[in-house]
Amino acid sequence: MLKENGLPRTVTLDTAAAELVIIDQTLLPAKLKLLRLSQIEDMCEAIKKLRVRGAPAIGVAAAAGLYCLAARYVTENEEEFFSKLKSDADTLNATRPTARNLSWALEEMLGCAESRKGQGVSTIKNALKVKAKDMEEQDVAVCKAIGEYGAALLKDGDTVMTVCNAGALAAVEYGTALAPVYVAAEKGKTVSVYSLETRPLLQGARLTSYELTENGINTTLICDNMASSVLAQGNISAIFTGCDRVAANGDAANKIGTYMLAILARHFGIPFYICAPYSTVDFSTKTGKDIIIEQRSPEEIRSLWYRESMVTEKANIYNPAFDVTPAELITAFITEKGIKKPDEL
Ligand code: MRU
C-alpha cells in the first residue's frame, strides 16, 4: 500500500548501478530520504544504526548488499572471489545478532554462489544479482500472504495493538504484523491500530504511526506503560507483533516489550499473534534461552532523544533490544504458510 501512495520500497537493489537503496529510517518521520550504498562500511553502519531495520528488511538488505560488494570484486580467480565473499558475508552477519533473517539471507546468497562453483566469476556474480532481486520480490509475496491470513482474523471495526514497527518499513513492502491491517483495508474493512511508542528507539512512534497514517489507517499512539490501561477498556480485539527469531519450541524473540504484551494479552483474554515468515524460524535454536539478545548503547536511553541527559551519570543503564516470549503465551504464528500454533511450525 505504501507503494501505491507513491512512497518507495524500504529496501531495494538497483541492479543497473549495483547499489543497495534504503530509506534512512533514522530521519523519519521528519524526512523521507533514500541512501545508496555500495561500500561494506556504509552497509554495516546503516544496519547497526538502524537506518535499515526490522528482520525481513535487514535480510533483504544484506542479500542485496552482498551482491553489490561482489559485483565490485576485480578478480577473475574463483578462490579469491569466494574468500572475499565469505569474509564480507561474515562482516555483514556480525552487525546485529538477534534477527534470524540476516544470517538466513546471507546463507541463501552463499549457497547460490557455491552452487555455481566452477562456472566462472562473472556467472556467479550474475547468479547473485538474480538471487538478491528474487529475495526482494519474495519478501513482498511472503508479507502479502501473511497479510491475507491475518486479515481473515479481523472484522470490520476491529482495533488491534502493536509494538515496535513490523510494517512496511520493516520489510520491502507490507511488513508482517501490519500486513493484516493493510490487507484488511484493501478488502474494505476499517481496522484501527494502537501503537506503543517503543522506548528507547521509538520505532512505534516514529515509524509505525508514520506509515499507518500515510496509508489512511486510524492510529493512536500510546506510551509503552499505557498498554494495560488501554487493554482494560476492552476495545482491543487482538495484539499483532513481528518477530526476530523463533526457536524450534516456538519461543519467539521480538522487540523489548513484546513479552509484556503477551502476558497482558493472557490476563485480558485477548489473542496474541506473532506474524513472521518462515525465514525467521531457526530450527537449530532449541529454545528461547539459546537466542542471543542484542545489548545496545546506554546512550539510547540516557540522551538520544533529549536535548540533555535525562539520567544521572551515576545510574547504571540496561538496554536489551529484544525479549523472548514463551511459546505458551503465543496464540498462533501468522506465516506465509498459514496460521500455526507454536508446536505446528
Ligand atoms: O531493533 P529493530 O527496530 O530492528 O526491531 C524490529 C523488531 O523487533 C520487529 O518487530 C521485527 O524485526 C520484525 S519486523 C517485520
- Ligand catalogue: 5-S-methyl-1-O-phosphono-5-thio-D-ribulose
Radius of gyration: 20 Å
Question: Which percent band covers the strand fraction?
Answer: 15-25%
The neighbouring-strand order within the major sheet is 6-5-4-7-10-13-14
Shape: globular
The helicity comes to 25-40%
User: Which residues form runs of ≥5 with pLDDT under 50?
Assistant: none
Helix/strand order: EEEHHHHHEHEHEHEEEHEEHEEE
Task: Calculate the terminal CA-CA distance, rounded to whole Å.
Answer: 28 Å
Number of strands: 14
Structural class determined from secondary elements: alpha/beta
Number of helices: 10
How many strands, which pairing sense, and closed or not: the largest β-sheet? Answer: 7 strands, mixed
- How much is the average pLDDT? 97
